[in-house]
Amino acid sequence: MKKGLTITIAILMVALLWYFLIKPQDYQIRVVAKSNTGTINQALKAWNNTLPNASVRQLNNLGNLEQKVVTGDSTHIYNWNITPITDSTSQLIVNVKDEDHSMGNKLVVPFYDTDFEKQSRKTVTDFIESLNAHRKEFKVTFMGEDNLPSTYCACVEHKTTQISKAFGMMESYPFLNSVIASNGIQVNGIPFIETTDWNMQNDSISFNFCYPIIKSDTLPQIKDIIYKEFIGKKSLKAVYNGNYMTSDRAWYTLLDYAEEKNIAIEKKPIEFFFNNPNMGGDALRWKAEVFMPLADQDE
Questions:
Q1: Stretch 74-94: mean pLDDT
Q2: In the chain, what is the straight-line distance between the N-terminal and C-terminal CA atoms, in Å?
Q3: Spatial separation of the C-alpha atoms in residues 239 and 271, rounded to whole Å
Q4: Which residues are within 8 A (CB) of 174 and not within 5 positions of it... i.e. 6 or more apart?
Q5: Mean pLDDT across the chain
Q6: Alpha-carbon gap, residue 96 to 115, rounded angstroms
Q7: Exposure of 253 by Cβ count < 10 A (0-12 exposed, 13-18 middle, 19+ buried)?
Q8: Which of 79, 102, 192, 234 is the most exposed place for a label (fewest CB within 10 A)?
């Protein structure tokens, strides 16, 4: 009996030690979100930017982010973990900790519905509401595999962030139009973006914004314009409807499909635009065809 009591006390002491000193969170919230990992990742970062005294950083991958929210005399740390359930739903596990009052929270959370818990639930609920509103602003339709043709083109180079991609396009549209119109260059298709680098950790991208043109020996040499051969190849394809600021939501759809089907791809998306964002209008009527090239077999 004494031995059993000793073992019970030891287990209890270990459990208390883990709970108060090792357990990383003061409170955990679980919720199912109707979106994929990449869209949740980007929506969380955008929503965070609307909050006062808040910051967010991506940790090891798209599905793990740490958010800090300063409220009163406390700094609340939200560790967001996103796990896919289906191609359109994800499990969110949010571990929350009060950086300054963690021990006190762990003492009372099991017994009371504290202000800390209420604030944590409200924060997660506010994000889910923002995410659901965002989901109504765009549509992504997966189309399968397609052969992307090659073309000669006139391009402007950009280095920016994913969220600022559309602003780079809007700057280049009138410039390229002016150069093409004033020099009699013959257009051979709709404008497109060729991504040359995508850093998924910090959301930075390098891309060429291009107009397909007819190749000629008399093309004018103009500052900030490059002429190049775009080499098309077999790609995964999706159709995006919505504001081009968030057309990268289609990128994540294609990434998820490639991962699910174990398809090797080049993470250098290409987007063809059927609307000029400078003209405004109902963004849900805007259309872009988005491609993710398949990797060469010898890569």
A1: 94
A2: 66
A3: 9
A4: 278
A5: 87
A6: 13
A7: buried
A8: 234
Whole-number Å distance between alpha carbons of 168 and 206 = 11
Closest C-alpha to 254, from 239, 240, 238, 241: 238
CA–CA distance, 143 with 134 (Å, rounded to integer): 22
- In the prediction, which pLDDT does 164 show? 92
- The pair of three-digit structure tokens given for residue 3, joined into one six-digit string: 């031995």
Helix H or strand E segment including 7? helix 2-17
Better pLDDT: 22 or 120: 120
The answer to whether the CB of 3 falls within 8 A of the CB of 62 is no
Domain ranges for the chain, please list them. 23-136, 140-293
Q: Report the DSSP beta bridge partners of residue 57.
A: 66
pLDDT of residue 109: 55
**Least confidently predicted of 111-120, 183-192, 228-237, 252-261:** 111-120
In one-letter notation, the amino acid at residue 240 is Y
CA dist 239 and 289 (Å) reads: 5
CA torsion 28-30-35-37 (nearest 10°) is 40
Domain 140-293 in this protein, CATH class = alpha beta
pLDDT given at position 270 = 97
Q: Which of the following CATH numbers is that of domain 23-136: 3.10.150.10, 3.20.20.70, 2.30.42.10, 3.30.530.20? A: 3.30.530.20
pLDDT, tens digit, 9 for 90 and up, residues 30-60: 999 999 999 999 999 999 999 999 999 999 8
Using an 8 Å Cβ cutoff, are 70 and 64 in contact? Answer: no
Kindly state the tokens that stand for 172: 């280049």
pLDDT digit string, tens, across residues 152-167: 999 999 999 998 998 8
Query: Residue 262: CB partners within 8 Å, gap ≥ 6?
Result: none
Q: What is the pTM of this model?
A: 0.87
Judge whether 76 and 69 are in contact, CB under 8 Å.
Answer: yes
